[in-house]
Amino acid sequence: MTTPINNRYEFVLLYDVENGNPNGDPDAGNMPRIDPETGHGIVTDVCLKRKIRNYVELVYEDALGMKIYVKENIPLNAQHETAYVATGTPVPSTKDEAKAVRNNVQKIQELRQWMCANFYDIRTFGAVMNTDVPAGIVHGPVQINFSRSIDPVSQLEASITRVTVTRQDEDKTTEMGRKHYVPYGLYRAEGYVSAKLANSSSKGTGFSEDDLNLLWDALINMFEHDHSAARGKMATRKLIVFKHESDLGNAPSHLLFDLVKVTRKPDAMPPRSFSDYEVVINKDGLPENVELITKI
Question: Would you list the domain boundaries of the chain?
Answer without folding.
Answer: 9-294
